[in-house]
Write the structure tokens for this entry.
Amino acid sequence: MSAAPEVVPQTDKAPEGRGFGRGRGARGGRGGRGGRGGAQEEKEWIPCTKLGRLVKDKKIDSLEQIFLFSMPIKEYQIVDAFISEEVLKDEMLCVQQVQKSTSAGQRTRFKAFQMVGDHNGHIGIGVRVGKELAVAIKASLISAKLNIVPIRRGYWGNKIGVPHTVPMKVTGKCGSVSVRLVPAPRGTGIVASPVPTKLLQFAGISDVYTSAKGKTRTRGNFIMATFNALKKTYGFLTPDLWEETEPSRDPADEHSDFLANYPKTA
């Protein structure tokens, strides 16, 4: 006679490594995914330019020293080193959709105009295009910091109190849009449409008359025309700037030994 088959007792415990169902049992943790799309920690700034190295080592005291020698700003951290985030405000001016016809059809991208300013004589405009809106906004903010310029302010009439208006009549142009800024008495306010009013407030100007010509509905050109007019305020050599000044050495030349011995980065 054949032996009776061995009876295996049934238990509620699943075989190790396999489940009762179609699952694969315990596979171990997958670990963190590196915060996909989440907030990433700020990396330490490693300057790549001579100006950045001088700023990080505190060889340069202010932005005015950079503007005095017309040194190009290639790293936005240079602006952050002199103007804190609490003082330097940013605002989105407009977002446009731009299209390009390709063999596959229409390609749509986003064009962002962003402004930064400290309400105390510094303003910058950034314009960038990206496939995604978030990318365009982030890139335009960095571009605005790189394009920051000083704005000269003056008086209308007697020089009493702090400067409050533009020092002279200036005109800026972009495309068909032409914007003219005219000094105004204290207490007049900003006589302008909403678009240039925001720029003038961020620049720290409280009283001014404005005049605009051209297709001002093209908001991008309207913004850049106002910005170009503000940049021209330091382009005039007025009598109060005729005083002799002692020439000073360029910071890159003055600290050439420091830059020559700066440790190289990979």
Remarks:
- Helices lie at 50-56, 63-68, 77-82, 133-146, 194-203, 219-231, 251-254, 256-260.
- The longest helix spans residues 133-146.
